[in-house]
């Protein structure tokens, strides 16, 4: 592959939609990251739209804490985005080590300022997470990967599943529901990151991705350890379950942090001077969305709200944490198509409930809709990232099967299974073209277990058998001669 004006040095990352390369922009002699669209998937048109949208969105922003786009273009059959190369690693790596409260607040401020700039241009990121916060050589954080961002003024999403895109560990409650998403979803995600930086762990953990999504919707805002209690109200306002109770915008977050820093500064000065100087925190109603501008309110709503949030969440928190094993963290779902090659080609899949059969999973009717939305989102994301039948309990087949256990007549799940079979047909075609008959046969067998009527897989099975027979015939002739 050649991109005019660039010399590709090496591959530095792969995802379900694009491959990233480290390259040299020859005209300026500078390093750049080339994100090149993978055009080999079956939903290329949709991916192209999302890919180009990412370039246009980031290029329209000019902010010291948002990654810079150099160029967008087409070379041969490839779409590419050229952006600045950031060599300081990401926040996900830094979280493996201790982060001081001062550093955590500094990161939140700078990323929040970038989000403020994006939100003011009508752009919501929707996938703010540690892996999307990079550090330059000076240690300054930059927000990247606007690949699933959207303009707030768009009439509709680029995909019908757009509202579900995001990472479960950092996903605002409303992202698992139908309806519009605004900048407060990004504020929620940044609040989750703040908690993780201060405590070294995610606020909600479970062996099940679905449980994590449900906890984000229902569990109370987590409590910070005593040494970080000064940041508890900041966290409460960033991670409030209802959007109207969160900071109304990123500017409000920055304003609140500024007041918070002033409080700490005054307190420190008072202690140093040996005085008992009284300091006050800014009132919550100044920053949240539920207060009507210009309307006078007393201080009691803040206290009542805090008490109600605590009481309504306490019951769920007790049951959730009592029954959860809490033994492993949820993966960031940053897998890629290459991992499919590690599948056992002879794997036997669990049977799929027949149409019209009785549900095998008894679920509380009140939770059916919520769980179905979560399963649908997870299934579509797994399908997009080629997590077809692996890893265990985190793949498209598993999630679509769970949907059918709840409702055997779910048409979307049935269609999803057919799409999985098509993905295996693509993988088999690719391996046959490279004369990898054994793995191609494995993919065909798996695909036919999922959709026995898939015409492409049937034809490939016949072709594989014919190819093998011709090889055996050639070997017989060779040994007879």
Main attributes?
481 residues, alpha+beta, Phosphorylase Kinase, domain 1, Transferase(Phosphotransferase), domain 1, 3 domains, five-stranded antiparallel beta sheet, two-stranded antiparallel sheet, 13 helices, 9 strands, 45% helix
Spatial arrangement of strands, main beta sheet: 1-2-3-5-4
How many strands, what sense, and barrel or not for the largest sheet?
5 strands, antiparallel
CATH architecture of the largest domain: Orthogonal Bundle
Tell me, briefly, the overall form. Answer: globular
Number of helices: 13
The total count of strands amounts to 9
Q: What is the helix content?
A: 40-55%
What count of structural domains?
A: 3
For this structure, the CATH topology of the largest domain is Transferase(Phosphotransferase), domain 1
Order of helices and strands: EEEHEEHHEEEEHHHHHHHHHH
Q: Provide mean pLDDT, rounded.
A: 77
Q: What's the level 1 CATH class of the largest domain?
A: Mainly Alpha
Structural class: alpha+beta
Given as residue ranges, the uncertain stretches (5+ residues, pLDDT < 50) are 154-165, 290-342
Terminal-residue CA separation: 43 Å
CATH superfamily of the largest domain: Transferase(Phosphotransferase) domain 1
The fraction of residues assigned to DSSP E strands is: 5-15%
Question: For the CA atoms, what is the radius of gyration?
Answer: 26 Å
